[in-house]
Sequence to fold (372 residues):
Amino acid sequence: MFRHTIPIGRVFGIPIDVDYSWFLIFSLLTWVLAVSYFPSQFQNWSAAEYWVVGAITAAMLFASVLLHELGHSLVALRYKVPVKRITLFIFGGVSQITAEPPSAAAEFWVAIAGPAVSFGLAIFFWGLSPFVASVPPALAVTKYLALLNFILGVFNLIPGFPLDGGRVFRAMVWGIQRNFQRATIVAAVTGRFFGFLFILIGAWQVLVGHLINGLWIAFIGWFLESAAAAQVQQQLVKNVLEGHKVFEAMDRDYVRISGEMSLQELVDRHVLAGGHRCFVIGRGDASAGLVTLADIRKVPRSAWPTTAANTIMIPREKLASIAPDSELWMALEKIGRNGVSQLPVVEDDRIVGILSREDVVRYLGTLQALAA
Fold:
C-alpha cells in the first residue's frame, strides 16, 4: 500500500513506518499552529515560542494518531489477526491488518478500539489542563490535543467504510444478517455517501469564500469516496472468485532454465523473443529458485553477458509461495500484501506453476464473460 516509507521502529513487535507525505502535513500543521491558531489564543509570545510549541503540538498529535492505530492493532492481535505494520501518512495513520477478523464481535472490538483510545486521550489532556494552567505553552498544547483527539474520535465514528465507524457499522450488519460480504458492501456504499457529502460541503465552503477549509474537506471526501468505491469493487471481485482455486488460473507453461545461463542469453531468448517475465531455475527435478524481470533490471546491462542467472535468483526457501488448492482470492491478497507481481505455486516442495496478477485478471474476465 505504501511504497515510500521510512521505518522508525517497533512497538509491541509491530513495525512503525512514516510515509513521505507525513512530513508535508507535519510542516503544514506546524505552520498553521504557529502563525494562526496559537497567536489568536495566546498573545505576547515570541515568534520562536509559537513555532516551537506548534512543532511540539504537531508531533504530539501524530503520537496520538499512533496510539489510536495501536489500539486497533493490539485488539486485532488479541483476536489472532496479524498486523503487518502501522504507517503514519498525510491523512493520519493506518494499521495494515492483513486478514479479516474471525467474527462480527471481533470486527466490532477491533474497530471501536481506535476511537476509544482517542476519546481516552481527549479526557486525559483535558484533565491535565488545570495542572499546567500556570505554564501557557503547556496549557496551549494540552487544550489543543484534547480538542483534536475528541474530533478525531468523533470523525472516525462516522458510519461509512473505511472509517472506524464504517467498520463498526459493518460489524453490526454482519452480526444481524450473518453475511460478511453483504455487510461489507452496505458499509462501503454508506462510506461513498459520506464521501460525496463531504465533497459537497467542501464545494459549498469554497463558494462562500472559505477556500482552504473547503478544499481540505472536499479532499477528505474524495479520499473517503475513492476508498469506499475500491472496497465495493474489491468485494465484488472476491464474490466472483469465491470457490475457485489457484490451479484453475495458474500458468503451467512457465519457463524453466539452467542456473548457469547468462542474463544476456536469458533476455535474448526468453524476455525479448518469448515475452516471459518470470523464470524458474531448476536443480535436477527440484526447483532452486526464481528470477524475475525486476531482478534482471537491478544488474547493469554491461554485466549481463557475464552474470549467471543463479547469482541473482531468489532462493526457493525465501520465496513467498501458494499451494495449488488455495483459494484464488487468498492468493490475490497475498500478491498484494507481499508487493510482488507473481507467486510460485508449490506442491510437494516443487514449483508446479506460476500465478501472476495478470493470470488472475484474465481468469476473472473469463468468469465474468461466462456469467454474462
Notes: The radius of gyration is 25 Å. The beta strands are 5-11, 14-19, 83-89, 92-97, 255-257, 278-283, 286-292, 314-315, 342-347, 350-356. The first strand starts at residue 5 and ends at 11. Residues 237 and 364 are 8 Å apart (CA to CA).
